[in-house]
Amino acid sequence: MIIYRIVAAGIGLVALSAPLYAQLAEPAPLVAEQPALTVLNQLGAAPNDAARLILFDRALALLPQPTPLRGHVLCGRAAVLGQLHREDEARLGFDQCRQLLPDEPNVLLPIAFDESHRQRPVEAAQLIIRAAKLKASALDQIDADSMATVLRQLAYAGKGDLADTMIDALVGAGYPRDNPGVFSHYTQTAILYRLRTGDAATAMQLLPSVLSPHAGVAMLVDRRYAPIWPAIGEWAGNDLSVQRGALLAAARATFETSETPETRLAYAQALVDTGHRGEAITLIEQWLQTDAANTDMWVRSMAVLKQGRWLAEEGDRAEGIRRMRAAVDAPAQPESGIENIVPNLVMQLLLAQDFGGAIAMLDRHPPSADTLESPVAAGYFVALRACALQGLGKHEQAAAQLARLRSVYPTAKTAGDYAVACVAPIDEQAARWIATVRDPDTRNDALVALETARYRAKQALPALTLTEQMLRRIESRTDVRRSFTEFGRPLPDSYAPALDDFNVRPAATPRGPSPTPVA
């Protein structure tokens, strides 16, 4: 899960000079607007946001008519208010701006993410779709984590169809340009979206845009892609090695071109996905040791949690836990994103069988409504507590947490998987997976997860998640295998190494099973 990131989706007008404002306004600024442009020309020299706000107010006073230039100034002022954390005033300003510039995507996007922050993902998605169709490049200002927040909110709300429509629009706009792994995942979804509408021709046209081997695996096992399996097989080659090389090359090129924290993380993830986990850990560690890593604490926290998880996958769970714990225990800073580290840290504590430590961490860092991307996301913390209690032998209390999860957070599907894996009897675990694979919104992930669990068990690799441990327990059941055959097919052996990110060496001995389910 990812806790909500407050997006400053400003439209880039804050530091523009008067000539640039003149270029933005259509038609060209009027002679009567020249005094306002003179004021706006001082924005570049303003020392801070408070000073910029004063200049915008002065310019607005000189622009009484509802012209396009006034609309741009209203937007610039709203962006500054957002930077000053005056969100309600900022939203009012963007709404006023939208009245004058109704088809400006750089106005629609800040409103969209304000809608997301107010827990209205349907409205947010509709605005994002419209903005993507109006001007694809406008999306470049939005980081991939923030866009993913809207998609998860739609999933919590049971709006999977709208999420697919939004993803198809994002792919049509080429978003995100700076993260080929995420773009590949979106394109895989867009291919299925077009297959469902009977448009196999355009679905196949998207295949060359998929660079991720993971996306290839997902398409090769899911029967919904069967109409174009021959094309997918030709695209994938014998072993997905072309995609493996292409993803790494694209991510590296993007990182070397920009070297932003976000592209560094995307490159590190591409390294992991292509069998270079150790290099990814080093890449992140080198960055964390620099002063630049302290300029965006949100990205720093995301880097720490990823590094911690990758260390665990490399067999050094203790070091991963140590690093995540150090970040959580550091002096609190606003919008630092440590809320994202906490559930990931608790998960690793559970896998290390430190159930008391998991409870202590959950008690110290309860979820906050101010940072949760959706109220439903609190279900993750309920599920983790259920697992910790089960591990401590407190089954009745664990079962009570599972019951609470089902009644209060029924759409927290992944959280439900965790709790069922820890607390429920085996029959219920199997029923849970069967229900998941029958649900079109979760089918693909369920198929890939079962194939991954089978492969890793065959290779004597440790289970990396609570869900994987559950899948190993149920994969040989007749009802599970029947459902898998109905909706999927086994991944051909030549592609199987992709299920373990092409890490063919044996992994370290597991540090301990998940809490034992009741019989």
Care to describe what's here?
Residues 493-519 are annotated as: Disordered. This is Tetratricopeptide repeat protein. This protein has 519 residues and is mainly alpha-helical. The chain is built from 27 helices and no strands. The protein has helices at 18-24, 34-40, 49-61, 68-83, 87-100, 105-117, 121-134, 144-156, 160-172, 180-196, 200-206, 213-221, 229-236, 241-258, 261-273, 277-288, 297-313, 317-329, 338-351, 355-364, 379-391, 395-408, 413-423, 426-438, 443-458, 466-474, 478-487. The longest helix has 18 residues, at 241-258. The chain starts with 17 loop residues before the first helix and ends in a 32-residue tail after the last helix.
Secondary-structure topology with pairs:
Blueprint (H helix, E strand, L loop, with lengths): L17 H7 L9 H7 L8 H13 L6 H16 L3 H14 L4 H13 L3 H14 L9 H13 L3 H13 L7 H17 L3 H7 L6 H9 L7 H8 L4 H18 L2 H13 L3 H12 L8 H17 L3 H13 L8 H14 L3 H10 L14 H13 L3 H14 L4 H11 L2 H13 L4 H16 L7 H9 L3 H10 L32
Helix pairs in contact: 1-2, 2-3, 3-4, 4-5, 5-6, 6-7, 7-8, 7-9, 8-9, 9-10, 10-11, 12-13, 12-25, 14-15, 15-16, 15-17, 16-17, 17-18, 17-19, 18-19, 19-20, 19-21, 20-21, 21-22, 21-23, 22-23, 23-26, 24-25, 24-26, 24-27, 25-26
Protein name: Tetratricopeptide repeat protein
Helix percentage: 55-70%
Tell me the fraction of residues in β-strands, as a range. Answer: under 5%
Alpha carbon gyration radius: 24 Å
* Oligomer type: single chain
The major beta sheet can be summarized as: none
Mean pLDDT over all positions: 91
Topology as a string of helices (H) and strands (E): HHHHHHHHHHHHHHHHHHHHHHHHHHH
Shape: globular
Structural class: mainly alpha
Tally of extended strands? 0
- Which regions contain 5 or more consecutive residues with pLDDT less than 50? 1-25, 505-519
Number of helices: 27
* Spatial gap, N to C terminus: 29 Å
Protein name: Tetratricopeptide repeat protein
Organism: Sphingomonas glacialis
Region (Disordered): 493-519
InterPro entries: TPR-like_helical_dom_sf
